Amino acid sequence: MLRISKIAAVGAMMLIAFGLKAQNTYSPYSVFGVGDLQGMGLAHNLAMGGVGISTANPFHLNNKNPALLTANRVVVFETAVTMEQKDLSTEELAQQNTTGGLGYIAFGFPVIRDVWTMSVGLMPYSIVNYESQDLGFVPGTDAILATTFNGSGGITQAYFASGLKLLKGLSVGFRAAYLFGSIRQETEFFVENTNYLTASVTRNAFSDIAFSFGAAYRLELVKDQNYLNFGVTYDLGGDRNVTRLERLERRDLSGDPQTPRDDPPYLVTDDLEGSLQLPAAVGLGIGFEKALKWTVAADFTTSKWSEYRGFDGGLEGLADRTEIAIGGSYIPDPFAVGSYMKRVTYMLGFNYQNTPYLVNDQQIDDFGINFGVAFPLRNISRLTLAFKVGQRGTTDNDLIQERYYRAFLGITINDNKWFIRRKFD
Questions:
Q1: Contact (Cβ atoms closer than 8 angstroms) between residue 373 and residue 343
Q2: In this structure, is residue 424 part of a structural domain?
Q3: Contact 111/117 with Cβ under 8 angstroms?
Q4: Is the pLDDT confidence value at 238 over 70?
Q5: pLDDT at 13
Q6: Is the peptide bond before 265 cis (omega within 30 degrees of 0)?
Q7: What is the pLDDT of residue 343?
């Protein structure tokens, strides 16, 4: 039989090689800032509206609050496949996009069981994926000018996290994430009756470290395993190193460059070092649970994206981001031997946020309803199906409305035999 460790290794290599290069979402609003922020939630968090700052699950890793990693008493490997269908519309136009791919990889293991747990992983921090067109006239003439704007790429984070239990019920944790990747944005111009295109290309390459901290407290209310949980997280803001390339290109009508890419005057800047200022973020969570039976939780997070500064050091007109998530889970009977469906975890939640995107003096909001199920597998592993139906923005005030449908297939492999020395072969 194929060992769990081999399955985890193959999955890790697939994700590193292919998965995180995929564009798992499409949004015109990803033109702003560093793109569409992805958060730290795994599939089981997303099925409950995104909660996880105060609540932990022994069968899953907690990526929302590193302090709660201590709940994992066995080795855990997690990965997920995502798919999204999005309907975009204005008052006059409509468009549909489908995206998807492999989403994340996470691996955790207890160093000292019930006391100290570590985790490493790879997942997107932000995604940029958009394209739009505008028709007008060349100034002073009646020649039609077609302008195309498009962006791609994003920021990926490779992280290390650790959670440590200090006292009964009290734990703390931290996460260090290496942010890397590049965001490419270009503007392409075409004037009618010409046989070439002109393009302006900008690419920002990211390479820096970000730190997050967390704390959690679990208060036992009665002896029947009922608990009141509290959690807090803090993401440290500050400058992040960026290297910029700017280039002008003359292209044929198929989009292929006609001019050298790396010779003046077409190369405006190359390897120009600078920084972006990312904001700090604070998260608060509260939850109530009966161990291995049911959980109800609420999270609140806020970050001051109004203080975000771009490569040139200027403010870019973003707004402060706030998010509220409420959700829960229920297992009818986790120890039922004769009924498989009673051992299934059922999850439900909703999520509302004021995104950082400020367009036409209106902040774009986002609301979603989440639900899902987690099926128990052999060796206390899990197969999680999570879904979200949501809407971002409105068609009023010349804005774009996004109605989206997201699906997540998460695989959690738990193994309590790792790091155990065999006495007999």
A1: no
A2: no
A3: yes
A4: yes
A5: 41
A6: yes
A7: 95
| Residue 145 placed within a domain | yes
Q: What is the DSSP letter of 8?
A: H
Give me the CATH number covering residue 256.
2.40.160.60
Helix (H) or strand (E) holding 6: helix 4-17
* Separation CA 150–CA 252 (nearest Å): 18
Write the pLDDT tens digit of every residue in 178-222: 999 999 999 999 998 888 888 899 999 999 999 999 999 999 987
Domains in the chain: how many in total?
Answer: 1
Cα 30 to Cα 65, 122, 270, 295, 424: the distances in Å are: 26, 21, 24, 34, 56
DSSP 330-341: E-S-TT-SS-SG
**Phi, psi for residue 380 in degrees, rounded to 5:** 50, 30
Whether 40 and 68 have beta carbons less than 8 Å apart is answered as: no
In order of 110, 314, 319, the CA distances from 165 in angstroms are 12, 42, 36
Per the listing, tokens 């409420």 go with 326
* Residue 422 included in any domain: no
> Rounded to 5 degrees, what angle do the CA atoms 255, 258, 264 make?
120
**Buried-state track 114-143, b at ≥16 Cβ within 10 A, e below 16:** eebbbbebbbbbbbbbbeeeeeeeeeeeee
Q: What's the rounded Cα separation, in Å, for the pair 278 and 157?
A: 14
165 touches 116 (CB < 8 A): yes
Show the tokens assigned to 142: 């009646």
Domain coverage including residue 338 = 4-415
- Is residue 287 one of the residues assigned to a domain? yes
